[in-house]
Amino acid sequence: MSYRFLKGHGTENDFVILPDPDGTVHGDLPAERVRALCDRRAGIGGDGVLRAVRDEDGRWFMDYRNSDGSVSEMCGNGVRVFARYLHEHEGADLPIEVATRAGIKTVTRAGDGLFTVDMGSPEVLGDTKVTVDGATHEARHVSMGNPHAVTFVDDLAEAGTLLEEPGYDPAVYPAGVNVEFVRRVGEHHVEMRVHERGSGETRSCGTGACAVMVAAALADDAPRGTTYTVDVPGGTLRIEWTEGDRVLMTGPAVIVAEGRSDL
Ligand SMILES: N[C@@H](CCC[C@H](N)C(=O)O)C(=O)O
Prior knowledge:
Layout: E1 3-10, E2 13-19, H1 31-38, E3 48-54, E4 60-66, H2 76-89, E5 96-100, E6 103-111, E7 114-118, E8 123-132, E9 135-143, E10 147-152, E11 167-168, E12 178-186, E13 189-196, E14 200-202, H3 206-220, E15 227-232, E16 235-241, E17 247-252, E18 254-261
Parallel strand pairs: 2-3, 10-12, 13-15
Antiparallel strand pairs: 1-2, 1-18, 3-4, 5-6, 6-7, 7-17, 8-9, 8-11, 9-10, 12-13, 13-14, 15-16, 16-17
The structure holds ligand LBFN2T5F.
């Protein structure tokens, strides 16, 4: 069966987009199809899949899958790419409300190729530990709808190769965790690497960058309304935690190709 796809990325966190407006093209979207599409040698290649399907209210739902086929609640880079796809290929007006497993996210245009997404309120859930390359690090547990462990390091090389999943406490994260390693660059400016649950090391993670910003702002005692610059291997994100307890993330969204696949 041949079906339409698009390919896009946000700060080089890349996705295969699968249009499926009435849910009849991909059904439950088998994990094997996600893995085949995301395969960088035998497939199209991607850190995940964004299936675009309308929900019972007619609102677009972002059905997000990691490259190993697992389901996640949210994808911050993905929702900007998703909104751009909906605007430019499905005629949706901006701002647009996108339904996700972590609730409705509103995406607005913020400039040339830039989009801002209201990521909602973070949940700061205490302290935990992660282990990488035999070293154990203190980490902060932050939920952006999906789970994160944020750890501050002096040098991002401390994260090692990240070819293997960092160790974490399964009692804290029964469904796994995304782990961010963060180095301070300057005032309200950090850089990070991430090991994503279900995808391995990626060049960016939007929810991860938001979790990092929240952890940094708390550590700095920064007033609400402060904007942080978060550098990721694939680019830069600007993130504000507002007076109203909303996390607003601004970054690029790019569509690079469109075609048909029978994977
Ligand atoms: N890259 C995404 C996050 C994707 C989901 C994550 N791997 C999970 O399993 O929670 C982002 O930009 O937020």
